[in-house]
Amino acid sequence: MIKLKNNMLKSKRSQMHVEMIISFIIFVGFIFTILYFINPVKEIKISTLKLNFVQEKVLNNVSLNYQTSSLILKDGLVILGDCFWVNNKLETSGNLITFDSSGVSRSSTSNLDKIYVDRVEGERIYHLYFSDNFDENIPSNLGSCVQVADSNFSFGNLNNEKRVFYPFLESLNTSFILNYVQLRDSLQISDNFDFIVRDLNGVIIFDDSTQLKTLTSNVLAREIPLNVLDSDASTRDFVLNLRVW
Fold first, then answer.
1. Tally of structural domains, the chain
2. What is the pLDDT of residues 99-141, one digit of tens each?
3. Of 191, 217, 231, 235, which residue is most buried, by most CB within 10 angstroms?
């Protein structure tokens, strides 16, 4: 009789162990099922991809491709007159913006044959920016510019560069306000988005966040620092706050 009771107790304990194991397996399976369908890591990846995609489309839309080089005069060269020209061996054209080595803008212009620059006393290095989108300041005395012989100057490398362009930011803002849907379609963006542009002091430059009503709380946002080129080739620092939903 005692043996029978012991066997029954052992049987019940074994059954309880089996039930606990089965319950644990079911619980773990339930947790994995939830994580499969509600995967926080997966959601983060999707959110990042969405933001990256919209950011790329927007920044490409407001960026300008331009070229830069430098003009270096021979040390000790004496130039008579206030303006000089050199043969354009860079073989590039476009409106020209020129800065001296102190960062001061100088009147200049160019064509495929020649580059004209207002002379600065004692200056040897001039930084050149080329783009049809620049507003060049043409020297008023082109006719009196003197030639610098090829042996008396050299050019630095011709570089292709790309930067956010302020007039393009203005156009994006205008298009957003006038016809948001057309703008979104032209950028090939399927999600909704808006943006705010501020300077580093927090002053709002463009604010399109009030143009659309966000009907969801699932809004993705990112702050993007911008070094923005203007039509005179000067630069300013802004912060772009981009929202996507």
1. 2
2. 999 999 999 999 999 999 999 999 999 999 999 999 999 998 8
3. 231
| Distance, CA of 75 to CA of 20 (rounded, Å) | 90
For the chain, helix, strand, coil in percent to 5 are: 35, 35, 35
Cα separation of 209 and 221, whole Å? 12
The answer to the question of residue 137 being in a domain is: yes
Q: Identify any residues that bridge with 45 across adjacent strands, giving them in sequence order.
A: none
H helices of the chain, where?
2-37, 40-61, 166-178, 180-186
Residue 82 corresponds to which amino acid? D
Angle (CA) 155 159 163, round 5°: 135
Q: Which residue has the tokens 């808006």?
A: 194
Look-up: residue for tokens 């919209």? 54
Residues of the chain above pLDDT 90, percent: 71
Q: The sheet that has 235-244: what strands, in order across it?
A: 204-207, 193-199, 235-244, 220-229
**Which residues, 6 or more positions from 9, have their beta carbon under 8 angstroms from its beta carbon?**
none
The pLDDT confidence band at residue 1, using thresholds 50, 70 and 90, is low
Residue closest to 197 by CA, chosen among 220, 164, 161, 219: 164
Which residue, of 133, 161, 189, is where some domain finishes? 161
Q: Alpha-carbon Rg of the chain, whole angstroms? A: 33
Contact 75, 124 (CB under 8 A): yes
Domain interval for residue 143: 66-161
How many whole angstroms from its chain centre is CA 216? 27
**Residue 158: alpha-carbon gap to chain centroid:** 22
| Beta carbons of 164 and 173 less than 8 angstroms apart | no
